[in-house]
Specification:
463 residues; alpha+beta; Beta-Lactamase; Heat Shock Protein 90; 3 domains; 5-stranded mixed β-sheet; 10 helices; 14 strands; rod-shaped
Length: 463
């Protein structure tokens, strides 16, 4: 089963995000429980202190009924405290005696030593009660309770600044994380993609002359770029060696093959004179093979000329439409298959070497015919846009697989391993060399079993 690959950067960002979220959640949880405990402690101390104050300012009327003295309330004028406190007195049985109770209060509080939380009218209150006694007498029914209440919301409000600071810190951390994520993408993913595109382009065009560049801050990416450039150097040297070998061999073979070809013609003439049919048959085979060899040598020589930087083929104004039409006319004429040709040609004048363009069109069209099925359609188009001009040949033949696509521009590569078709595997490599010579490229769009489109693209101003 194919494992789905994930981007390392996205993975890192997701993991960092998760770790950060869990960290923040833990910190919030800890802070919340500390604040909760602290709020209870604060409320307890506050209410206890208030109960003490009330106890000191208690007044009694003639029938010993207690009330909260004026001095208790007057004290508040000098104290800066926003918390609304409810202080009241209640009998041990729970009957209200004096003081202020919150809205909705309808309970009979029991005597308790610990802080409690109760809700009235949907508002939560901290409650503390303490026992009190009328005078010093400990007789009869002279006990009552001092009750103190403060709303939880009021106590919570004292922590507002703490929470603001906490959320500000979380916001700043989130902002840093966002900047980190965007930065990481920009500094790692983008250059990685650019490197990949450059490597893909080089290997598709078999052009390893342009060095990869990485100016970013990361050592690992620098190392990858460096080792790719070293690999490029080796591949380039290998190509140069191969091309030098091809050039030397074709040079050495050119003369003997030309002599053999000439001798063939002479022998044929003699055999014709002598009416020697057996000899004529044998000479025909010999002639076919020497013609093939001559073609191969010419192709190799042509390619080595393009490789040499000091040899510049002459240029002239060439109309791509004329070249395509004349090459296709010949191809249609000699085509042994039942192929339908379609054209969409726009006059396109470009400064190039006419012979090189003829080689391009002949190779692309002969391939389209060679690899098409009987009755297939071959469509040839040419034209230009503002910066480039193109010649495109589409067929409905057997198509090319993805693996083959990576190799078809190599010299002597033939995807057809059974070698059922004529050819040396040099045509496309020659077309690519010509495209590169003019600063262009050859694009392939193909699907196995459905056909292929080869597009030769060069800049309009290639000089
Ligand atoms: P050849 O002489 O073998 O045609 P080329 O360099 O022109 O050499 O092409 C290289 C290989 O690419 C071919 O052997 C063939 O497998 C594949 N190829 C080229 N053109 C086509 C096409 N139009 N459809 C399918 N395969 C193609």
């Amino acid at each position: 089963m194919l494992k789905k690959k994930r981007s390392l950067v996205t993975y890192t960002i997701i993991m960092c995000g998760l770790i950060m979220t869990v960290g923040i959640a833990c910190l919030l949880f800890i802070q919340n429980s500390i604040v909760k405990d602290d709020m209870e402690l604060q409320a307890y101390e506050k209410l206890l202190q208030e109960i003490r104050q009330v106890r000191w300012s208690l007044n009694y009327d003639k029938s010993d009924t207690p009330s909260i003295g004026r001095e208790y309330y007057d004290r508040y004028e000098d104290v800066e405290d926003d918390d609304k406190l409810y202080m009241f007195l209640q009998s041990i049985k729970g009957d209200y005696i004096a003081g202020e109770v919150p809205d909705g209060y309808n309970e009979k509080l029991s005597l308790q030593s610990d802080l409690d939380i109760k809700s009235f009218n949907g508002v939560k209150y901290y409650i503390l009660t303490r026992k009190a006694r009328v005078g010093k007498k400990n007789i009869g029914n002279n006990k009552f309770m001092i009750c103190a209440m403060v709303s939880v919301k009021d106590i919570k409000a004292n922590y507002r600044i703490l929470w603001y600071r906490t959320y500000t810190v979380i916001g700043v951390v989130a902002l840093f994380f966002f900047v980190f994520a965007v930065g990481l993408r920009k500094l790692v993913t983008v250059p990685m993609k650019e490197l990949n595109v450059a490597i893909d382009k080089s290997s598709q065009n078999l052009d390893f002359t342009e060095k990869l560049r990485y100016d970013g801050p990361f050592l690992e990416l620098d190392m990858i770029t460096e080792s790719n450039n070293n690999l490029y150097d080796r591949v380039r040297r290998e190509f140069e060696r191969q091309e030098e070998f091809n050039a030397n061999v074709s040079h050495e073979l050119r003369t003997p093959v030309a002599v053999m070809h000439a001798q063939c013609q002479l022998s044929r003439e003699i055999a014709e004179k002598n009416n020697d049919h057996e000899m004529l048959e044998s000479i025909a085979v010999f002639e076919r093979q020497t013609t093939r060899m001559k073609g191969l040598i010419e192709q190799l020589l042509q390619m080595s000329i393009l490789e040499k930087n000091n040899v510049n083929p002459s240029v002239e104004d060439v109309d791509l439409l004329d070249v395509v039409e004349s090459v296709c006319d010949d191809a249609e004429y000699i085509c042994k298959k039942n192929i339908q040709f379609r054209y969409d040609l726009v006059p396109t004048i470009v400064k190039v070497n006419m012979n090189l363009i003829v080689i391009v069109v002949s190779n692309l069209v002969s391939n389209a015919i060679k690899y098409s099925n009987e009755g297939g359609i071959v469509k040839v188009t040419c034209g230009s846009d503002s910066e480039t001009c193109y010649i495109s040949v589409r067929d409905e033949g057997r198509g090319i697989s993805k693996e083959q696509k990576n190799r078809i521009f190599e010299s002597f590569y033939r995807a057809d391993t059974a070698r059922n078709t004529e050819g040396f595997g040099l045509g496309l490599s020659q077309v690519m060399k010509i495209a590169k010579y003019y600063g262009g490229t050859v694009q392939v769009d193909s699907e196995v079993g459905k056909g292929s489109t080869f597009t030769f693209i060069i800049p309009v101003n290639n000089g």
